[in-house]
Design brief:
The chain is an all-alpha fold. Helix content is about 55%, strand content about 0%.
Length: about 70
């Protein structure tokens, strides 16, 4: 078996792996949207509303302001 054959098998395996990962990610996004754990529409609007004065998409519970400490 020469190096070209090994490269071909490796490329094929990498392509299959990438496709499986992509479909897995798409299924994850779809399921979390259906369950209501995340609303990805809000993240899509982030590109349109990206000002320093814009309110955050989600509050970070671990982040405390100086007044709360």
């Amino acid at each position: 078996m020469d190096i070209r054959a090994i490269q071909a098998y490796a490329w094929f395996a990498l392509t299959i792996f990438a496709v499986v990962m992509l479909y897995g990610y798409i299924i994850h996004l779809y399921r979390s949207e259906k369950k209501g754990t995340r609303d990805y529409e809000k993240y899509g609007k982030l590109a349109l509303d990206d000002e320093i004065t814009s309110k955050p998409i989600e509050e970070n519970p671990s982040h405390k302001t100086k007044n709360e400490e």
